[in-house]
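## retry 2 of 3
previous attempt timed out at serialization; input unchanged, resubmitting
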Amino acid sequence: MKLTHLRLSQFRNFAMQEVSLRPRLNFFLGANGQGKTNLLEAVFMLSRGESFRSGQHEHFLKDDQSRARVAAAVESPAGRGQLILDFSEGRTSATYDGKRTGFSTLSAQIPVVLFSPESLASIKEGPDQRRELIDSVLATRTERDSKLLREFSKVLRSRNILLKQIAKGDTRSTTRGSLDSLTTVFLLLATQVTEARLRALREIEPEWKKSVAQIFLSSGSSTERIEPAHVEIRYEISRHDAMGWTADQIFDAFSKRLEELHSRELQLGASLVGPHKHDLRFLFSKNDSRFYCSQGQQRALILAFKIAQISVHHTVLGRYPILLLDDVMSELDATKRNRLMEYLEETTAQVLITATDLIWSRQFPQERNAVFAVENGNVTVTAQGAVRAVGSDDLSIFSRSSTDPLEDAAT
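## retry succeeded, writing output
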């Protein structure tokens, strides 16, 4: 899966911008605040329908505009297509070749993997960030897993609304009945999401251990080297390691815990049991890396996790996801930067990288790679001939309307 062309209309700080992307490495260079991350955010949202950054819907619109659009020409084994993401009236909608489509489908069909300073800091941050690591795997793995996550989130929100109503004094029998019915569905979905997370982690962990060993071995320091057997991942449910649990064990544990915390949930007005309360632990020499490892070691563990995620995705599905690296090179020391670049050279994935400079880069052939300059919402190729036109077939579907550029395709 590749994006051959990207077009932004009134999105963030881009009024109208078209970029022809290369099939391998695309470097976007510029000072902070010029729009580099906005480009990666646009690609991320084409897949997920939501941003990796916090913000309200109106933040996606440039200045006082009422509408915005992100469009891309997509090239896959099934052929070429056009993906459009529209922002209007507080809603985000997607079409593929003129037909409405859901983000569960897009996440699986156009998978992206994000490296960011926030993701590299997942270990030392809260459990929300660590859960996002595994949920990002599920979102890009299969359409079923992606839908499962969205269905669970929807049921969780609905259940919390009912619990909040009861906590505020709603004593109607219909409200209690709705809660009981919804809890049955909630329990099943919670079990399925947890089972899917564990299945994915069991696939990733062997590759993660290998990647950890390679990253630490490449440091050249005997004190930094670590054997694969000395690291492991724990998935914690109520502080118990559940990596080896079956679906029945998960269901039974949830059922028991829901009974124990039933009164507490009614009192607080929130769901206290389920995947949204679980945590990941990355153990380093049998110690919790949150407290035992340096910041550089923590980043190396997460970098290894992301690399393992990409490798397993390719092994299981036979294709690489699109990789988005948002200013991560500045977060890594020279050894880890080199290891990451070596890995990127080994894959055939399409990669979009933002940075303030290229002092850490290698020499790459121009025919498959490009360097762009980003300044104040404008993107230009930095070297003549670094990027050639993708071809008229790709660019023609982005032909602009003479009136409103947002009116040139079906919504």
